[in-house]
Design a protein that fits this description.
about 20% helix; about 200 residues; two-stranded antiparallel sheet; alpha/beta; 5 helices; 11 strands
Length: about 200
């Protein structure tokens, strides 16, 4: 899995499996994800929670985030910015129904540039992924946005703030993902079937 062609093939296979899901399967998965996330106490109590706008067959967050506002929590979506010639993520508040702009990657972003917050101001982040293992290693699209944006966590005792929770379908689980030195691991993974503790607890 360490060779780039193998990773490329693996990514393509996982993307294809996501895209083949039927609408009813996505709805059921979104319901299952909410149940998994609500097993995590921080998801019910943390104030600043970031997620993503599901594209390309990603597991939708709509059901999971629906109760946040009523609990007094703020939901954020990522905004891609450039820093030092490399892209990374900042975040802005967003509520269902608010207008969005589509960035040059084709991903909707909040129209809220004056309310942007840095990644280290968040309490919990729902991180999209293509694959994961139970040690908290994540296979992403290869752009490195999340690894760069949360590199301040490298070397810190985990879990800490923000808590990184990978989100994916159960079928995206892999036996093991070979890591690189720049990879930032996940604290938990929430799927449509279960909540996985990657911190050394009941994984």
């Amino acid at each position: 899995m360490s060779k780039l062609p193998e990773r490329r093939e693996l990514r393509a296979d996982l993307v294809q499996r996501r895209r083949q899901l039927k609408p009813a399967e996505r709805v059921a998965a979104a319901q299952g994800l909410r149940q998994s996330l609500e097993q995590l106490p921080e998801f019910l109590t943390d104030t600043h929670i970031a997620g993503y706008w599901a594209t390309g067959g990603e597991l939708p967050l709509n059901m999971a985030i629906a109760p946040l506002a009523a609990r007094g929590q703020t939901f954020y979506l990522p905004i891609v910015t450039k820093s030092g010639g490399k892209r990374r993520l900042t975040f802005a508040p967003w509520t269902t129904g608010e207008d969005v702009d589509t960035n040059d990657l084709g991903i909707p972003e909040p129209k809220a540039s004056e309310r942007i917050v840095e990644a280290d101001r968040l309490d919990l982040v729902l991180v999209p992924l293509l694959g994961f293992d139970r040690r908290g290693n994540r296979l992403g699209f290869g752009g490195g946005y999340y690894d760069r944006s949360f590199e301040f966590l490298r070397g810190k005792d985990r879990p800490t703030q923000p808590l990184l929770v990978g989100v994916g379908y159960a079928f995206q689980e892999l036996d093991a993902i070979e890591t690189a030195e720049w990879d930032i691991s996940l604290d938990y993974v929430a799927t449509d079937k279960e909540l996985i503790d990657c911190t050394g607890g009941a994984a």
